[in-house]
C-alpha cells in the first residue's frame, strides 16, 4: 500500500483529553490524626418476609393513585393479600366494587394510609422485609404524600443520594422517608432515610459502636432483569420471557371507571411481579455470587464485580493506593473510547458486514491483561529506546502473530506530525466533543497507547516520533484467590490464578453455543440461558468496570486538583465530582480500547490493500464495501481474504475466525450469501437492506439512532398502506415499525435518485406535533412544573417519576404583532421556546396544554414542530468530525488534519447522556476542568504570535475586540484570572486562527490578481481603474 | 396476624438485627431460638470488640469463667494483654465445646448400647 498523502492542516482546534481529579493537596488529611470512627456492623440481608405491590393510576397529568394491590409473604407463603385505594381517587361506586371484589376473593381492603402504616411500615419495614415491585420508583412516588430533594451533607465527598428525591409516605413521624435516586432508565438506588432521633443508645455510643440506619431491602424486578439479561423488559415481556405461571394480562382501558377486570389486572400484576422475582432470584443464586447482595446489583457491571469478588480479587486501587497520580493522569490522557466512523456517506453500496468475536475479551486475552487483574500491584519502567525499535520494526505481517500483542502494555509520548490518531474535539462547535480518527499535528507531545501508534503506522505508513515510553508490568499474583464455577456450573470451573478468565469464558460460551445448535425446545432454551450468563460475565468484566467513574453534582463549586497528562497539576473549582468505581483500573481500559482501535485500523488497511472500500465502522464491526466496478464474486473473495487474515490471531482453544461475516449478509431464512446494501448517514445512523426482484428494498437492519426519544407517531397496527411490513428479524431491540418506514422512505428516495428530498407525508400522523416522553427523574427536571403545580392539590400535581412530554418549537407566533412601533435600540434576540406539557395518553390534549418551560406562557399547537419537520433533516445528519460530511455532501468522507490549538482537560464524557438524548445538549452537564495555567500561558503566546504574523488590528478584529482590549487581555497575569475577555479569547481562538488564515489567503489571491493587472496595464492605470492611490497600491502589492 | 403475633415478629426481627443474623446458632451448644441470644465478648468486655453469639446459658458460664482471668494491669502492654485475654476467652469456649462433645459422645455410646440390648431381647 502506498502511504496516503497527508493533507494540509484543515483545522486549528482545541482537543479534549481526559484528566484525573482528586481533592486539593492541602485537604488531604493526616490519616493517623483522624479520630477513630464508630464501628458499623456489616449490612444484614433481608428477612424471609417480602412485600410485593403495584399501583394503578389515573391516565392524566398527575397520574394520581386510584388503587393498588399487594401481597405480604413469609418464606414465600402469602400471609396477607389485599387491595388499597386512595379515597380521593375512587368514586363511591368504585369503592363498593373494590370492597365486593376484596370480599369475594378473600382480600384485605385498606386505604392508602392504612396500607402504608399497617403493611408497608408496621410489617415490611419493621420485619426487614424485601420490598418488591416493577419500576418501584414510580410506585413509591404514587403512594407518597409529600416529596422533596434528597438531602446530603454539602461537603460530603460521596453522597450517593444527591440529586435524588425524598418521599414522605406516612404522617407518623416514627416512620422514615424513602429516598430514590435515578441512575439510568433501568436502575435507581432506593433506601429508607434515617428516622428521627438517636438510634444509638448512650452506652453504645460510649463504647464507640453505632447502630446502622435501617436502609431497607428494595428489589426492582426491572433492574434485576436488565442486569441479568443485559436488555430492557416491560413486565409483560419479562413474564413471558421467564415463562412464569401467571404472566401479565392484557391492559384494560384505564381512563374508564374501575371495573372487575381492572382490579383483576392489578392483582395479576402483583402475582406476575412476584413470580418474575422468584425466577430471577433463582437465576441469580445459580450464578454462585454468594458475596454479592442482589439488592445492590444495578447493572451487568454489578455481576462482573461479583465474579471478581467471588474469586477473591482485591481491587487494584486498594492494593496500590500510592500509585503516582501523575501516572494515572498520563493513562487517563491516553484514554479514548471505541472507534466509530462513516466512510462512504449517503451512497448506496453493496457491503459485507463483519464483526469481531467478543472484541474486548479477545484483545484482553491477546495482551494478557488478566495478569494485571490478579496482580498485587503493577510496576512501570522507561522503555523509550526499546519501544522506538519495536515501533520502527513492526509491520502489518508481524501483527498477524499473537506475540507482539502482549508487548502492547506501553504508553508512549509522541509529537504528532500529521499521523492518524484518535482526536477528541468539538468539531461541530456545539460544545459537544466527539472522537474521530484524524490526522493530528501538535507543537507539544501527547500521550497515546502504543497500539494507537502502531495503528497510525499501519494507516499512514510512517511511525510517529516517540519522545518517551513507559511500559507497565504486573506484579506478583495476589494471595487468597479462589476458583469459581461460572453460573454455578461445575463444568465451567475457572481458577483465576492459573487460567485467563476472559479466555476461559469465551471458550466456554463457544462450546455451549455449539451444543445449542444441535438442541431444540427446552434444551435449546437452557443452553441459551447458559451462553447468555457466560456472555454477560465476559462483557461485564472485560471493560466497563475498569474505567467506572461515578459523577455527582455538588450544591456548590469546590476546588479539585486536576492531574492532566500535558502539564503540572492545577487547581480548578467545579461542582462536579468524579468518584472512581471500586475496580477502577484505567490502564486496562485504555489498553483495551487502544487495541480494539488497532484491530479496526488493521481491517481498514487490509480492505484498502485488497482494493475494497468500507462504509462504516463501529467499535467492533466494519461494513466492507464493494467498489462499483467490481464483480460480486470477486468482492466476496477479497472480503473473505480480509476476514481470514485475522484467524491466526484467535487466542482461543477453538478454531474459528475472530472477524466474522454477520448473519445479516445471508438470505432471510437461508445460509447462502445475498447481496446486502448499505445506506449510511453517520457512523451510528445506517440501514442495511437487500433488493427484491422489483428493485425495491427489503430491510435487514436499521438503526434507531436519533429516533428513540420520539413517541411513535402511529402504532404498529396503523401502518402506512403503501410501505411493506419489515421482516420480524428487523424489529425488536428498540426498533419499531415507524423507524423501518422512515428508513424505507429514505432508501426509496435514494434509489429514485433524489436522496436529499425524502417525502414525509406517507402517513397523516407525521403532520402532528412531534412529542418526546421522559420521566421526571430528578428535582431539577420536576422544577419545570413548579408553576403548573402551584395551585393544584398534591394528588393532581406532576410528581417525581411521572411522565412529562416535551415538544420542539417551530415558531413563536405569540410574539408576532402587526403595526407595533419598534422600540429604539437593538432588538433583543427572541429566546427559543422550550415547550413541555403534562403527560396525557391523548396527544391532542397534551398539545393543547403545552407551555414554555422558561416563561410558563402557553405555546400554540401551530408553533410546534410536526414529526415531518422534526425528521426533515434526519437523512442529512452531518458527521462533523470529517470533511465532505456536511448535510448534503455525499460520497467518501475525508479525514481532517487537526492542529492542536490547546488542550482542554475534561472528565467523564458520557455523563448524563440519557437525559441529554431526550432534552438536548446541556453544556452545564459536561465535566470540564479548563486548560491549566500552562495552556493559558500558551494561548497568550499563541496570540502574540498571531499579532506578529497578521498585525494587531487584524488579530483583534478576528477576536472581535479592540486592539487595546486584546493587548490588556494577554498582558501578564490577565489570562490566569477568570475574566470574561480571557475566557472569550480561549473560546474564539480556533475560529480566529481559521479566519486570519482565510483572510490571508484571500488577500494573497487579490494581490496576485493585482500584480497581473499591473503587469498588463501598468501601476497608474491599474490604480485609476481600482480607484486607489498609486503609492498605496504599490505598498499593498509589496506587502505580500 | 393478630396484635400479639405482630408484636412478637417485630421483637424477633429487631433482635435478629441486633444479633446481625437471620439464623442465630449458639456456637457452643447449638441452641437456635432467637430469644435466647446475647453477644459475648471473647476477650472480656472493655478489652476487645470481637464478639460471638452465645445462648444465655453458655454466655453466663463463659462470663463467669472470665472472672477468674487475670485482672486489669494498667502497666501491661495493651496489645499483648488483649491477645492474651482473647486466647483465654477462646480456651473457655473450646472447653465448653469439648465438654459438650464429650457429653454428646457418651450419649451416643449409651444409646448404642441400649439399642443393642433392645435388639438382643
Automatic annotation (TrEMBL), chain A:
Classification via InterPro entries: DNA/RNA_pol_sf, DNA_pol_palm_dom_sf
SUPFAM superfamilies noted in UniProt: DNA/RNA polymerases (SSF56672)
UniProt-recorded name of the protein: DNA-directed DNA polymerase
Organism from which the protein derives: Sphingobium cyanobacteriorum
UniProtKB/TrEMBL annotation, chain B:
Name of the protein: HNH endonuclease
Annotated source species: Sphingobium cyanobacteriorum
Amino acid at each position: 500500500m502506498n502511504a496516503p498523502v497527508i493533507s494540509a492542516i484543515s483545522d486549528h482546534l482545541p482537543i479534549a483529553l481526559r484528566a484525573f481529579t482528586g481533592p486539593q493537596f492541602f485537604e488531604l488529611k493526616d490519616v493517623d490524626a483522624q479520630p477513630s470512627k464508630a464501628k458499623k456492623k456489616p449490612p444484614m440481608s433481608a428477612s424471609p418476609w417480602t412485600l410485593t405491590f403495584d399501583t394503578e393510576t389515573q391516565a392524566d397529568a398527575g397520574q394520581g393513585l386510584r388503587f393498588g394491590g399487594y401481597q405480604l409473604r413469609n418464606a414465600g407463603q402469602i400471609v396477607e393479600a389485599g387491595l388499597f385505594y386512595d379515597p380521593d381517587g375512587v368514586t363511591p361506586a368504585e369503592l363498593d366494587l373494590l370492597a365486593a371484589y376484596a370480599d369475594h376473593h378473600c382480600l384485605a381492603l385498606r386505604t392508602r394510609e392504612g396500607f402504608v402504616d399497617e403493611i408497608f411500615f408496621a410489617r415490611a419495614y419493621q420485619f426487614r422485609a424485601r420490598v418488591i415491585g416493577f419500576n418501584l420508583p414510580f410506585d413509591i412516588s404514587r403512594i407518597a404524600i409529600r416529596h422533596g430533594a434528597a438531602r446530603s451533607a454539602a461537603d460530603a465527598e460521596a453522597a450517593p443520594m444527591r440529586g435524588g428525591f425524598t418521599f414522605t409516605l406516612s404522617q407518623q413521624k416514627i416512620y422514615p422517608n424513602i429516598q430514590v435516586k435515578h441512575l439510568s432508565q433501568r436502575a435507581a438506588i432506593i433506601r429508607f432515610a434515617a428516622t428521627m432521633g438517636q438510634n444509638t443508645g448512650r452506652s453504645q455510643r460510649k463504647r464507640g459502636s453505632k447502630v446502622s440506619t435501617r436502609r431497607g431491602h428494595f428489589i426492582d424486578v426491572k433492574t434485576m432483569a436488565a442486569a441479568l439479561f443485559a436488555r430492557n423488559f416491560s413486565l409483560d415481556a419479562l413474564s413471558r420471557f421467564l415463562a412464569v405461571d401467571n404472566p401479565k394480562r392484557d391492559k384494560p382501558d384505564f381512563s374508564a371507571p374501575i371495573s372487575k377486570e381492572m382490579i383483576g389486572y392489578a392483582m395479576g400484576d402483583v402475582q406476575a411481579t412476584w413470580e418474575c422475582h422468584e425466577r430471577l432470584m433463582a437465576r441469580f443464586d445459580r450464578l454462585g455470587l454468594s458475596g454479592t447482595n442482589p439488592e445492590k446489583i444495578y447493572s451487568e457491571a454489578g455481576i462482573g464485580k461479583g465474579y471478581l469478588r467471588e474469586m477473591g480479587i482485591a481491587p487494584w486501587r486498594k492494593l496500590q493506593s500510592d500509585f503516582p497520580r501523575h501516572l494515572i493522569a498520563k493513562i487517563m490522557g491516553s484514554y479514548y473510547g471505541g472507534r466509530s466512523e462513516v466512510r462512504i456517506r449517503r451512497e448506496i453500496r453493496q457491503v459485507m458486514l463483519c464483526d469481531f468475536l467478543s472484541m474486548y475479551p479477545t484483545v484482553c486475552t491477546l495482551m494478557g491483561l488478566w495478569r494485571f487483574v490478579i496482580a498485587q500491584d503493577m510496576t512501570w519502567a522507561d522503555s523509550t529506546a526499546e519501544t522506538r525499535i519495536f515501533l520502527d520494526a513492526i509491520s502489518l505481517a508481524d501483527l498477524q502473530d499473537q506475540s507482539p500483542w502482549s508487548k502492547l502494555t506501553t504508553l508512549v509520548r509522541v509529537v504528532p506530525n500529521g499521523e492518524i490518531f484518535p482526536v477528541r474535539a468539538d468539531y461541530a462547535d456545539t460544545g459537544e466533543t466527539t472522537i474521530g480518527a484524524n490526522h493530528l499535528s501538535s507543537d507539544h507531545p501527547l500521550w497515546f497507547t502504543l497500539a494507537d501508534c502502531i495503528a497510525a503506522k499501519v494507516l499512514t505508513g510512517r511511525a510517529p516520533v516517540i519522545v518517551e515510553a513507559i511500559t507497565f508490568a504486573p506484579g506478583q499474583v495476589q494471595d487468597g484467590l479462589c476458583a469459581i464455577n461460572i453460573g454455578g456450573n461445575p463444568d465451567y470451573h475457572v481458577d483465576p490464578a492459573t487460567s485467563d478468565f476472559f479466555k476461559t469464558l469465551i471458550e466456554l460460551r463457544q462450546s455451549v453455543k455449539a451444543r445449542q445448535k444441535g438442541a431444540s425446545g427446552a434444551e435449546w432454551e437452557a443452553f441459551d440461558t447458559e451462553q447468555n450468563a457466560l456472555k454477560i460475565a465476559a462483557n461485564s468484566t472485560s471493560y466497563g468496570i475498569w474505567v467506572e467513574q461515578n459523577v455527582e453534582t455538588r450544591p456548590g463549586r469546590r476546588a479539585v486538583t486536576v492531574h492532566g497528562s500535558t502539564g503540572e497539576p492545577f487547581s480548578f473549582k467545579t461542582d462536579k465530582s468524579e468518584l472512581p468505581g471500586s475496580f477502577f483500573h484505567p490502564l486496562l481500559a485504555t489498553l483495551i480500547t487502544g487495541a480494539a482501535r488497532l484491530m479496526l485500523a488493521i481491517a481498514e488497511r487490509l480492505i484498502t490493500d485488497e482494493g475494497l472500500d468500507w462504509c462504516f465502522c463501529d467499535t467492533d464491526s466494519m461494513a466492507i464495501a464493494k467498489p462499483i466496478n467490481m464483480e460480486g464474486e470477486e468482492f466476496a473473495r477479497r472480503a473473505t481474504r480480509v476476514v481470514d487474515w485475522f484467524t491466526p490471531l484467535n487466542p482461543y482453544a477453538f478454531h474459528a475466525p475472530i472477524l466474522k461475516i454477520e448473519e445479516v449478509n445471508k438470505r432471510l431464512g437461508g445460509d447462502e450469501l445475498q447481496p446486502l446494501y448499505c445506506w449510511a448517514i453517520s457512523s451510528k445512523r445506517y440501514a442495511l437492506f437487500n433488493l427484491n426482484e422489483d428493485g425495491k428494498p427489503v430491510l435487514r437492519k436499521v438503526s434507531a439512532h436519533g429516533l428513540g426519544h420520539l413517541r411513535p407517531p402511529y402504532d404498529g397496527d396503523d401502518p402506512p398502506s403503501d410501505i411493506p411490513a419489515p421482516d420480524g428479524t428487523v424489529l425488536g431491540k428498540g426498533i419499531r415499525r415507524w423507524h423501518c418506514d422512515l428508513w424505507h422512505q429514505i432508501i426509496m428516495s435514494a434509489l429514485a435518485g433524489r436522496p436529499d428530498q425524502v417525502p414525509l407525508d406517507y402517513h397523516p400522523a407525521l403532520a402532528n406535533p412531534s412529542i418526546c416522553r421522559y420521566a421526571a427523574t430528578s428535582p431539577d427536571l420536576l422544577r419545570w412544573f413548579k408553576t403548573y403545580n402551584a395551585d393544584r392539590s398534591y394528588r393532581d400535581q406532576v410528581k417525581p417519576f411521572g411522565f412529562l412530554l416535551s415538544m420542539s418549537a417551530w415558531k413563536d407566533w405569540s410574539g408576532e404583532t402587526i403595526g407595533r412601533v419598534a422600540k429604539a435600540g437593538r432588538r433583543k434576540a427572541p429566546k427559543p421556546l422550550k415547550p413541555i406539557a403534562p403527560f396525557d395518553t391523548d396527544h391532542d390534549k397534551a398539545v393543547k396544554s403545552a407551555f414554555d418551560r422558561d416563561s410558563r406562557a402557553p405555546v400554540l399547537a401551530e408553533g410546534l414542530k410536526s414529526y415531518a419537520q422534526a425528521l426533515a433533516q434526519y437523512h442529512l445528519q452531518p458527521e462533523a468530525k470529517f470533511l465532505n460530511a456536511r448535510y448534503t455532501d455525499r460520497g467518501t468522507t475525508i479525514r481532517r488534519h487537526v492542529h492542536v490549538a490547546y488542550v482542554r482537560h475534561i472528565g467523564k464524557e458520557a455523563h448524563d447522556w440519557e437525559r441529554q438524548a431526550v432534552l438536548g445538549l446541556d453544556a452545564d452537564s459536561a465535566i470540564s476542568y479548563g486548560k491549566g495555567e500552562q495552556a493559558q500561558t500558551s494561548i497568550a503566546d499563541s496570540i502574540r504570535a498571531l499579532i506578529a504574523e497578521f498585525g494587531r488590528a487584524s488579530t483583534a478584529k478576528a477576536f472581535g475586540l479592540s486592539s487595546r482590549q486584546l493587548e490588556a487581555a494577554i498582558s501578564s497575569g490577565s489570562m490566569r484570572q477568570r475574566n470574561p475577555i480571557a475566557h472569550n479569547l480561549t473560546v474564539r481562538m480556533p475560529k480566529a486562527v481559521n479566519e486570519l488564515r482565510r483572510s490571508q489567503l484571500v488577500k494573497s489571491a487579490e494581490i496576485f490578481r493585482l500584480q497581473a493587472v499591473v503587469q498588463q496595464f501598468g501601476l497608474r492605470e491599474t490604480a485609476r481603474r481600482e480607484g486607489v492611490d498609486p503609492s498605496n497600491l504599490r505598498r499593498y502589492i509589496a506587502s505580500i | 396476624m393478630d396484635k400479639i403475633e405482630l408484636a412478637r415478629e417485630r421483637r424477633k426481627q429487631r433482635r435478629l438485627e441486633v444479633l446481625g443474623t437471620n439464623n442465630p446458632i449458639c456456637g457452643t451448644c447449638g441452641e437456635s431460638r432467637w430469644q435466647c441470644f446475647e453477644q459475648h465478648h471473647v476477650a472480656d468486655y472493655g478489652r476487645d470488640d470481637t464478639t460471638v453469639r452465645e445462648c444465655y446459658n453458655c454466655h453466663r458460664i463463659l462470663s463467669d469463667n472470665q472472672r477468674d482471668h487475670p485482672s486489669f494491669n494498667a502497666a501491661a502492654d495493651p496489645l499483648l494483654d488483649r491477645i492474651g485475654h482473647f486466647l483465654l476467652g477462646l480456651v473457655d469456649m473450646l472447653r465448653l465445646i469439648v465438654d459438650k462433645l464429650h457429653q454428646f459422645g457418651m450419649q451416643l455410646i449409651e444409646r448404642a448400647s441400649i439399642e443393642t440390648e433392645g435388639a438382643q431381647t
